[in-house]
């Protein structure tokens, strides 16, 4: 399953290769209730073809109509939707009562622009994490290296450059679950709802065939072997949820060799301490590698049931992905 972000940029690149000018719209900020988060994209051509979304439909319709009327010819500009008194936003009031600030970029079908879109596409595929910068005033666009976690959109990116928007580019969030258990099922269901690409690995073929969570890829393989033979990018979270050290420990030994942003394994404080000793003694892991592993896994919510444990796990993954400290919650 391809993430919508990647599909939007692939389509924008394809249109550009056909000689079409593309308007790339990015949600910069939201105030109040909003159906789409900052960083969400929509690509549009002059004749109204589009992919992606900014809201529940009313914003898209207004933008496409105004584009057909010859508006948005600037290289870049910001428009505000949801304020009934704002003419730039078409006097639109969103049904959810929220406000959107949207960056609109006009991308002409030039070789330089196709190269720019190609770089953007490669970043979304996980080849290299990047930050994309757009100067709203001049329309200048450029990339910089970035491996940090945090919000997708930073605006203004710098108090000294109030016109500069920075957008963190990363591949679709991926969750690899080592082993099938009741917690695994609940965790996979939560993750799909949150927009993760979810892969579940277990060596038991019968258990794999019985695993039934829509939208999840199931691999009948030892998780450690899967991790050793499949490339992980830095938008990957790896969790082991079986209480079986033959699966969980081996998975952790391979997980720390990856750039995964979150690695965790289920167990009590006492079980986790014993696991850490085993991983150092038998697995040869260093103190720095042990420190990367969240054990016990998840936020301390007092969870008891599989669903509650899964909620604690996914909440912690989202916390880390957004760069939030536990004491900031």
Write the layout of secondary structure elements.
Blueprint: H1 4-17, E1 22-31, E2 41-45, E3 50-52, H2 58-68, E4 76-81, E5 99-107, H3 111-124, E6 130-135, E7 141-145, E8 153-154, E9 164-169, E10 174-178, H4 182-193, E11 197-201, H5 205-210, E12 216-219, H6 223-229, E13 236-240, H7 245-255, E14 262-265, H8 269-281, H9 287-291, E15 293-294, H10 306-321
Parallel strand pairs: 10-11, 10-13, 11-12, 13-14, 14-15
Antiparallel strand pairs: 1-2, 1-5, 2-3, 4-5, 6-7, 6-9, 8-9
Model description:
The chain is α/β, with parallel strands linked by helices. The chain has 2 domains: 4-169, no CATH class; 174-328, NAD(P)-binding Rossmann-like Domain (Rossmann fold, 3-Layer(aba) Sandwich). Helices cover 33% and strands 23% of the residues. It is built from 10 helices and 15 strands. It has helices spanning 4-17, 58-68, 111-124, 182-193, 205-210, 223-229, 245-255, 269-281, 287-291, 306-321, and strands at 22-31, 41-45, 50-52, 76-81, 99-107, 130-135, 141-145, 153-154, 164-169, 174-178, 197-201, 216-219, 236-240, 262-265, 293-294. The strands form 3 sheets. It has a 6-stranded parallel sheet, sandwiched between helices. It has a 5-stranded antiparallel sheet with strand order 3-2-1-5-4. Strands 7-6-9-8 form a 4-stranded antiparallel sheet. Helix 7 (245-255) links the parallel strand 13 and strand 14. Helix 4 crosses helix 10 (306-321) and helix 6 packs parallel to helix 7. It is elongated. The two termini are 32 Å apart. The model has no long low-confidence stretch (mean pLDDT 89).
């Amino acid at each position: 399953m391809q993430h919508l972000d990647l599909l939007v940029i692939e389509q924008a690149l394809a249109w550009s290769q056909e000689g079409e000018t593309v308007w790339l719209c990015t949600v910069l900020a939201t105030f109040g209730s909003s159906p789409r988060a900052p960083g969400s994209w929509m690509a549009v051509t002059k004749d109204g073809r589009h992919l992606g979304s900014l809201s529940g439909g009313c914003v898209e319709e207004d933008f496409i109509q105004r584009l057909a009327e010859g508006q948005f010819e600037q290289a870049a500009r910001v428009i505000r939707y949801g304020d009934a008194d704002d003419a730039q936003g078409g006097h639109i009031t969103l049904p959810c009562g929220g406000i959107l600030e949207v960056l609109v970029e006009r991308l002409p079908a030039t070789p330089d622009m196709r190269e720019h879109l190609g770089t953007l596409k490669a970043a979304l595929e996980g080849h290299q994490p990047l930050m994309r910068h757009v100067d709203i005033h001049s329309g200048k666009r450029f990339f910089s290296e970035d491996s940090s976690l945090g919000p997708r959109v930073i605006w203004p990116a710098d108090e000294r450059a109030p016109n500069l928007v920075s957008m963190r580019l990363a591949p679709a969030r991926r969750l690899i679950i080592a082993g099938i258990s009741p917690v695994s099922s609940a965790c996979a269901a939560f993750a799909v709802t949150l927009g993760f690409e979810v892969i579940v690995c277990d060596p038991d073929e019968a258990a794999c065939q019985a695993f039934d969570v829509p939208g999840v890829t199931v691999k009948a393989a030892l998780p450690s072997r899967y991790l050793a033979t499949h490339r992980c990018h830095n938008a990957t979270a790896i969790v082991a949820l079986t209480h079986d050290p033959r699966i969980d420990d081996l998975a952790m030994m391979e997980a720390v060799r990856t750039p995964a942003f979150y690695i965790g394994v289920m167990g009590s404080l006492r079980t986790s301490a014993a696991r850490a000793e085993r991983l150092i003694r038998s697995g040869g892991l260093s103190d720095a590698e042990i420190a990367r592993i969240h054990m016990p896994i998840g936020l301390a919510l007092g969870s008891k049931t599989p669903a509650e444990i899964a909620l604690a796990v996914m909440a912690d993954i989202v916390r880390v992905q957004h760069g939030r400290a536990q004491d900031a919650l």
